[in-house]
Design a protein that fits this description.
Helix 1 packs parallel to helix 3, helix 2 packs antiparallel against helix 3 and helix 2 packs parallel to helix 4. The longest helix has 18 residues. The protein has one domain. It is an all-alpha fold. The chain is globular and about 40 Å long. The protein has 6 helices and no strands.
Length: 126
Amino acid sequence: MPGTVTMDQMELVSRLAATLVGVRKGQRLPTTINDKATALQLYMMALQGLAQYLASASKGFKREYLKTLTATLVAGKVKDWLSPGISLIKATWEALELQEKLAWVRVLVRVGWKGVEQFLLADVAR
């Protein structure tokens, strides 16, 4: 977390990011930012940097973080889910408490994310 940004500010940034990604499943985002990454992949990389703060974060920040991550996963394609999605999903999964994990999986199933079986089913089974 950058030293000049508070958790409350990051919560607001996450809320804005979730809205931007969630509108029309991210179709209004540019498809490529540079030759190596899509806009959604850059969102995922930013979220991955914040995943380490989840364990000690407020409920409000966790909620907004998970909304942004969920919107990003739903808007993404398989190539986004593979890189950097896999490491982001694992980092998030490890930082959440059991009840939060189950609630997040329920949301992903409810919104129809197609990667639940491939990327989370083994973790849920454990």
